[in-house]
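dumping this here before i forget
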Amino acid sequence: MRLAPKIFLVSALVIAVLCAAASWSLLTVKRLVTAHQDITTRSVPALRLQGTLRESIRSLMRLEARWLVLRDQDYAAAWNQRAAQMADGLQELGGYLETPGERAAHEAARIAFHEYRRHVESERRLVAAAQGAGALKLAEGPAREAAQRAETALTEMTAATEAALARAQAEAHALEDRTWRAVAAALLASVALGLGASALLAYRMTRSLGRLTVATASVAAGTWTEPMAAEGRDEIGELGRSFNRMAERLREVDRLKEDFFSQISHDLRSPLASIRLAAETLHERAHEGGDAHQARFAQLIDASAARMLGMVNEILDFTRLRAKAMPLDRRPIDVLKAVVRAMDEMRPMAEEKRVRMDLAADGGDFTALAEEGSLVRVVVNLLGNAISFTPEGGAASLRLAALGDRLELRVRDTGAGIPADALPWIFEPYRQAHGRRQGTGLGLAVVKGLVDAHGGTVRVESEPGKGSCFTVTIPKTQATA
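structure:
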């Protein structure tokens, strides 16, 4: 049966059953609705809002502490937003309160929260004036005290509201008992029948839609492996079967694209290597013959071929990573030496652009079970981007730290930064945050693939005009599967 007739029949059954019960109980239900009105329109929303406000004050204290420690403006902005929401919530809460106890507690909470906001503003002024110790003292003293007073007042308000709610519930319960005896039997049977039919239809629909949601998420994440179960002859079943066909076609297109890039890249390596060999031979002959003009042309050919060969190798590496056909030869290595090796490889590029490179190491043991060549490739790609997007006179700094059972490498530059709208997809293949530039747009995708293969993580923080910071974390030992 199609979905429309199913919904119509179930809806008609539910409506007929409920109308029969409602015609019998309409007169007595009116009094019960009036009794419950105070609960549903005042007490319950007030309690829900009070719980939200208590959690908000705790969240504000956590954001305040993180901002004082990290001085990250994102935390300050989050605090401002959360504080504004809490102020609006306090104002909205005032409209739900009726008893004197509730109103007194509300006024105390409002005053304490206002005082807390003033203290936080004073902390920010102290931090801006380079008086961090004073700001910390203010946060641990008056600011925390004011926040705790606000939380205590909210707790007292909740107790007063719960007391009022208990009284209202007792009155409603007494009325409900009288009403229930009159209509219980008929109402119970009719509602059970209607709800049973509705639940059966809803379960079948939501089960199919849930499967479709999971399958859609797996396609988006690139982990879809097998068709979803598509049952029934209605529209949802047809949608599931159409989804399977679409997902299989997408996977086929993706596979064809990767095969195409892999084959083209592989076929280009040999002629590019021959071009480089011929260019080197021409350069040597021109140099021996004293023909500087021809030597320059040969050098340009060799450099262009080298750049193209690097792009081809990058495409091949990414294809292998996507296909999980790039096994790692892990062995204990000194990660610090791998970082230094990558810096030596990128030093000519940095000197040509007059970009300063610095390395700092925190800790004594930088040994990890990893593949040295892959880690060098990660650092070279990150450092190459840092140098490319940093103007002359800028700096690219690296910091390697041993943090217990993992190593953390930060590559920070003073370049152009990454636009905020590009950050969510910065590690996706064939995407470049600053428009089409030299390269394939696979550098960061390869970085993420190699780091993931080591069981690590990579993340980025960036601010346009002030530079970017890429943080790579890898475990010292191989992660268990």
